[in-house]
Amino acid sequence: MKKIIFSLFIVLFVVGCAKKEIAINEESTAVEEEPIETNIVEVQEAEKKDIIEDGTIIGSIYFDYDKFDIRKDMVETLDDGIEKINDNPEMNVVVEGNTDEFGSDEYNFALSNRRALAVQKALTTRGVAKDKISIVSFGKTKPICTDKSEECYQKNRRGDIRLIK
Fold first, then answer.
1. Which DSSP state fits 133?
2. Is 159 helix (H, G, I), strand (E, B) or coil?
3. How far apart are CA 66 and CA 140, in angstroms?
4. What is the three-class DSSP state of 126?
5. Three-class SS state of 129
6. Residue with more model confidence, 133 or 39
7. What pLDDT shows up at residue 51?
8. In 3-state terms, what secondary structure has residue 135?
9. Which of 110, 120, 135, 122 is nearest to 72 (CA)?
10. 3-state helix, strand, coil in the chain (%, to 5)
């Protein structure tokens, strides 16, 4: 009995594994190619976007002596900063008000606060959400230039726009 079952198994195995001829229809050999969609535009836009590190100053708005209104020549700098803010929606903004060394500490802290508020107002007027922006007043405590010249004093009369996480 074992021989019969074994022989039957061998026959079924050979018959089941036999090669079968497949008829190929000449008309059906043409394969239609589907267009491959690429995301070239997305890749190019991602390459254009600069990676901005936490704490980077993306713009400095300069002010005239004893003033806190934004000058017309600073609007382009402001707009460039807004573009960088919009390109980095995961980051928040800190506006840092600064002054030159003239005047008392109290006066300069108040003036730098008004400068920071002026930049904040300009950013929100142009579409940046107010809750993304915080301000800080440094007065004359954080000069970027310490020379005794008008050019140096002008560099210290500023509102820095900084991106933070």
1. E
2. strand
3. 13
4. coil
5. coil
6. 133
7. 79
8. strand
9. 122
10. 45, 15, 40
Mean pLDDT of the chain: 84
**Structure confidence by residue, pLDDT tens digits, 20-79:** 555 545 554 455 556 555 555 554 554 445 678 999 999 999 999 999 999 999 999 999
**DSSP-derived 3-state class of residue 156:** helix
Q: Is 64 helix (H, G, I), strand (E, B) or coil?
A: coil
- Residue 160 scores a pLDDT above 90: yes
Contacts of residue 5, Cβ cutoff 8 Å, sequence gap at least 6: none
State the average pLDDT over residues 111-140: 97
Tell me how crowded residue 159 is: count the other CB atoms within 10 A of its CB.
28
Q: Which residues pair with 163 in a beta bridge?
A: 56, 93
Alpha-carbon Rg for the chain in angstroms: 35
DSSP annotation of 157 reads S
In the 8-state DSSP scheme, what is residue 12? H
Question: How far is it, in rounded angstroms, from Cα 161 to Cα 159?
Answer: 7
Decide: 140 and 100 in contact? Cβ < 8 Å. yes
Cα torsion through 149, 150, 151, 154, rounded to 10: 130
According to DSSP H, which parts of 17-149 are helical?
40-48, 75-87, 105-125
49 CB-near residues (< 8 Å, 6+ apart): 87
